[in-house]
């Protein structure tokens, strides 16, 4: 059975440094982390931990998501848990409620359980204070990679926003309103809006400012009074749950979809296919992304693999909630 001293010798570092890496309890360079974890993997080293063998638990992966009630993140968790089950790992889940301040506490709570690694969906990876601490191997899920956290599994939300807007433009829509949760709570929503702006710019059209609302408030009482002023022919919601809330509120206002206002969203959640008419949306493979992120994290944590960025493909699904204005009546 290999020892910590043997791991440190193979990695070319002190025993204290090897211990910090394997226990994620101190500052160590990224290069040294990879060297120590590679040495541990080659020697099949497993820390004995502080618990007796009879009480020892399965290794844990920590997962942070914005909301446990959103079907998008439920799908991601399904992919993560299926992969971790095969690997013999438990999954510990925390949520931030789309609040950057809560992210810090949530990640701190996960770290108390000494996880093998972390899968994190944060509000904004460039600003998140949760990412400023010393962390075990970490993969961003849904967020774009950063200079420090190069491991990420995400779709191209900018391009998705651009293509969905182009879909509406091709059908004659020029007055398109983008409704979203606060951009400070989701870089995914912000990138989708930026893609929308790019499509409008290329079409030579002046876009509306985005209508931003809290993500976690109830969507059954949305305040959509701006539409009476702006009179959009189409609304893009930054996710499908919000799009469904918009549709409900439009109907309560006496408006027909898509005759009076077209609506489209992002994510491709199952309930959108059950609506009448079916929701036009950009499908994103959230369950697949969760499984891929889990595999990447295991490869980094157990085999000292280099972090990498994986881009997941999206697909536009045309439903009946978008009207072709160009078509003859």
From TrEMBL:
Domain HTH lacI-type: 2-56
Keyword Nucleus on entry: no
CDD domains: HTH_LacI (cd01392)
InterPro entries: HTH_LacI, LacI/GalR-like_sensor, Lambda_DNA-bd_dom_sf, Peripla_BP_I
KW Transcription regulation (keyword) present: yes
Record key words, sorted: DNA-binding, Transcription, Transcription regulation
Top-level taxon of the source organism: Bacteria
A GO term for molecular function: transcription cis-regulatory region binding
Name of the molecule in the record: Transcriptional regulator
Organism lineage: Bacteria, Pseudomonadati, Pseudomonadota, Alphaproteobacteria, Hyphomicrobiales
């Amino acid at each position: 059975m290999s020892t910590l001293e043997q791991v440190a010798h193979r990695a070319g570092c002190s025993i204290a440094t090897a211990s910090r890496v394997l226990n994620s309890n101190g500052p160590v360079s990224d290069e040294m982390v990879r060297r120590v974890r590679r040495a541990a993997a080659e020697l099949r080293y497993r820390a004995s931990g502080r618990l007796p063998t009879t009480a020892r638990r399965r290794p844990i992966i920590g997962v942070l998501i914005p909301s446990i009630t959103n079907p998008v993140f439920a799908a991601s968790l399904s992919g993560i848990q299926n992969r971790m089950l095969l690997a013999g790992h438990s999954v510990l889940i925390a949520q931030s409620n789309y609040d950057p301040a809560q992210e810090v506490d949530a990640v701190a709570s996960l770290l108390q359980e000494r996880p093998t690694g972390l899968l994190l969906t944060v509000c904004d990876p460039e600003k998140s204070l949760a990412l400023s601490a010393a962390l075990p191997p970490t993969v961003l899920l849904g967020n774009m990679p950063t200079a420090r956290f190069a491991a990420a599994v995400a779709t191209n939300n900018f391009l998705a926003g651009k293509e969905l807007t182009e879909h509406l433009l091709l059908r004659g829509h020029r007055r398109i309103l983008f409704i979203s949760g606060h951009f400070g709570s989701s870089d995914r929503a912000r990138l989708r809006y930026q893609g929308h702006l790019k499509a409008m710019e290329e079409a030579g059209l002046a876009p509306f400012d985005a209508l931003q609302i809290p993500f976690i408030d109830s969507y059954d009482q949305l305040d959509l009074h701006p539409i009476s002023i702006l009179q959009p022919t189409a609304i893009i919601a930054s996710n499908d749950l919000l799009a469904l809330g918009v549709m409900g509120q439009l109907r309560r206002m006496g408006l027909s979809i898509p005759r009076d206002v077209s609506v489209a969203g992002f994510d491709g959640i199952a309930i959108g296919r059950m609506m009448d008419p079916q929701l036009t949306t950009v499908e994103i493979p959230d369950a697949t992304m969760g499984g891929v992120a889990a595999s990447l994290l295991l490869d980094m944590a157990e085999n000292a693999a280099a972090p990498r960025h994986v881009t997941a493909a999206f697909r536009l699904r045309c439903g009946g909630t978008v009207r072709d204005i160009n078509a003859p009546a």
